[in-house]
Amino acid sequence: MRFVVTGGGTGGHIYPALAIARGLQDKYPGAEILYVGKTGGLEAGLAARAGLPFQSIPLAGLQRRLAVRNVTAVWQAARGVVRARRILAGFGPDAVVGTGGYVCGPVVLAAALTGIPTLIHEQNALPGVTNRLLSRFVSRVAVTFADAVRYFPRRDRVVLTGLPVRPEILAFSREEARRTLGLPVTGKLVLCFGGSQGARTINGAMAGVLPRFAGRPGVCFIHVTGPAQYDSFMAALSRSGLRAPQSGNISIIPYLYEMPAALAAADLVICRAGAATIAELTVAGLPSVLVPYPHATGNHQEFNARALERQGAAIVIRDAELSGSVLATEVEQLLADERRLQAMAGASKKMGRPGALADITGLIDQLLS
Ligand SMILES: CC(=O)N[C@H]1[C@@H](OP(=O)(O)OP(=O)(O)OC[C@H]2O[C@@H](n3ccc(=O)[nH]c3=O)[C@H](O)[C@@H]2O)O[C@H](CO)[C@@H](O)[C@@H]1O
């Protein structure tokens, strides 16, 4: 079997493509997989690290407003389709899978026009432009959120699968996870992080929240600042009397490599609303306070967050309304209300799709027969 996977621009598009590639390799031992990405994109390095051969297409991104650069971009996209057709003719894939980002456009379109079975995966509750355009041509659209379905005109082709999460996320029991992290087995753990870069406003609010909980029995905090903001966060915190990164029940770190263990150990999470983060929260069945990143394209993080809020799985605080006292009040109330926390955890778990990868590779399998 031979497959092409394509998707690029940000990790948010690339990691699901790599997860699907792994799923296809497991399902079809010996399958050959080619990653097609943008020339000079982040995907080239990540595909190489995943051991996948890579071919590239030169492309410029479209500007959202009317711009001269768009003429070049459209011209490059047309040439991209020609280049993609050549790559596909040379490789001869049985199916092509796209996970969003501009590069997906020419590759998936060229495949669809040549009659190769195609599937695209949409990570967010508000679908991206490329996937919306492509949905008219592809064989199947796999979505992460039920809320995304209405944006695709050909609903009969849309299937709710969820977003494939890294398998380690489900590997820990709560006790094992707490031992791994050196935390007490009893008591509540509040985990707080921004996206992979950290979040300035969440850090600002947490500098007000943490001193209120310092030394309080029965609750501990892990706060992840993001690598670039660690020093300024520690400086801000020391002004309120907390100096050490590890003081009693509070632990402050620049980046959390043990995310799977931390999610298994946590009782409440405070974070942004990126699609991968939300897939992980719901697979783990965790209640959350979500602060969507307000500058994400089309404000899609707010759509992601509201999808959880509507099901009772999360509380949403808008970035502009976040402050130390707003967040501290919310956390106090949640920690004091075990029944509410349990109800939110149950709602979150219901939205989780641990079988997302199997469902996606199953859909691809159907397209082959
Ligand atoms: C700023 C922005 O536009 N981000 C977008 C980007 O998300 P991006 O990939 O940046 O962010 P996500 O929230 O989707 O994923 C973050 C990932 O980093 C991990 N992590 C984070 C912090 C840490 O200390 N350790 C750690 O392991 C999380 O567990 C998660 O797996 O693409 C997603 C999918 O299109 C979108 O939904 C997001 O809105």
Automatic annotation (TrEMBL):
<dbReference type="GO" id="GO:0008360">
    <property type="term" value="P:regulation of cell shape"/>
</dbReference>
<dbReference type="GO" id="GO:0071555">
    <property type="term" value="P:cell wall organization"/>
</dbReference>
<keyword id="KW-0328">Glycosyltransferase</keyword>
<keyword id="KW-0961">Cell wall biogenesis/degradation</keyword>
<keyword id="KW-0133">Cell shape</keyword>
<comment type="function">
    <text>Cell wall formation. Catalyzes the transfer of a GlcNAc subunit on undecaprenyl-pyrophosphoryl-MurNAc-pentapeptide (lipid intermediate I) to form undecaprenyl-pyrophosphoryl-MurNAc-(pentapeptide)GlcNAc (lipid intermediate II).</text>
</comment>
<keyword id="KW-0131">Cell cycle</keyword>
<comment type="similarity">
    <text>Belongs to the glycosyltransferase 28 family. MurG subfamily.</text>
</comment>
<dbReference type="InterPro" id="IPR006009">
    <property type="entry name" value="GlcNAc_MurG"/>
</dbReference>
<dbReference type="GO" id="GO:0051301">
    <property type="term" value="P:cell division"/>
</dbReference>
<feature type="binding site">
    <location>
        <position position="166"/>
    </location>
    <ligand>
        <name>UDP-N-acetyl-alpha-D-glucosamine</name>
    </ligand>
</feature>
<dbReference type="GO" id="GO:0051991">
    <property type="term" value="F:UDP-N-acetyl-D-glucosamine:N-acetylmuramoyl-L-alanyl-D-glutamyl-meso-2,6-diaminopimelyl-D-alanyl-D-alanine-diphosphoundecaprenol 4-beta-N-acetylglucosaminlytransferase activity"/>
</dbReference>
<feature type="binding site">
    <location>
        <position position="124"/>
    </location>
    <ligand>
        <name>UDP-N-acetyl-alpha-D-glucosamine</name>
    </ligand>
</feature>
<keyword id="KW-0808">Transferase</keyword>
<dbReference type="Pfam" id="PF04101">
    <property type="entry name" value="Glyco_tran_28_C"/>
</dbReference>
<keyword id="KW-0132">Cell division</keyword>
<dbReference type="GO" id="GO:0005886">
    <property type="term" value="C:plasma membrane"/>
</dbReference>
<protein>
    <recommendedName>
        <fullName>UDP-N-acetylglucosamine--N-acetylmuramyl-(pentapeptide) pyrophosphoryl-undecaprenol N-acetylglucosamine transferase</fullName>
        <ecNumber>2.4.1.227</ecNumber>
    </recommendedName>
</protein>
<keyword id="KW-1003">Cell membrane</keyword>
<feature type="binding site">
    <location>
        <position position="196"/>
    </location>
    <ligand>
        <name>UDP-N-acetyl-alpha-D-glucosamine</name>
    </ligand>
</feature>
<dbReference type="GO" id="GO:0005975">
    <property type="term" value="P:carbohydrate metabolic process"/>
</dbReference>
<keyword id="KW-0472">Membrane</keyword>
<dbReference type="GO" id="GO:0050511">
    <property type="term" value="F:undecaprenyldiphospho-muramoylpentapeptide beta-N-acetylglucosaminyltransferase activity"/>
</dbReference>
<dbReference type="InterPro" id="IPR007235">
    <property type="entry name" value="Glyco_trans_28_C"/>
</dbReference>
<dbReference type="GO" id="GO:0009252">
    <property type="term" value="P:peptidoglycan biosynthetic process"/>
</dbReference>
<dbReference type="Pfam" id="PF03033">
    <property type="entry name" value="Glyco_transf_28"/>
</dbReference>
<keyword id="KW-0573">Peptidoglycan synthesis</keyword>
<dbReference type="InterPro" id="IPR004276">
    <property type="entry name" value="GlycoTrans_28_N"/>
</dbReference>
<feature type="binding site">
    <location>
        <position position="301"/>
    </location>
    <ligand>
        <name>UDP-N-acetyl-alpha-D-glucosamine</name>
    </ligand>
</feature>
<comment type="pathway">
    <text>Cell wall biogenesis; peptidoglycan biosynthesis.</text>
</comment>
<feature type="domain" description="Glycosyltransferase family 28 N-terminal">
    <location>
        <begin position="3"/>
        <end position="142"/>
    </location>
</feature>
<feature type="binding site">
    <location>
        <begin position="10"/>
        <end position="12"/>
    </location>
    <ligand>
        <name>UDP-N-acetyl-alpha-D-glucosamine</name>
    </ligand>
</feature>
<feature type="domain" description="Glycosyl transferase family 28 C-terminal">
    <location>
        <begin position="190"/>
        <end position="354"/>
    </location>
</feature>
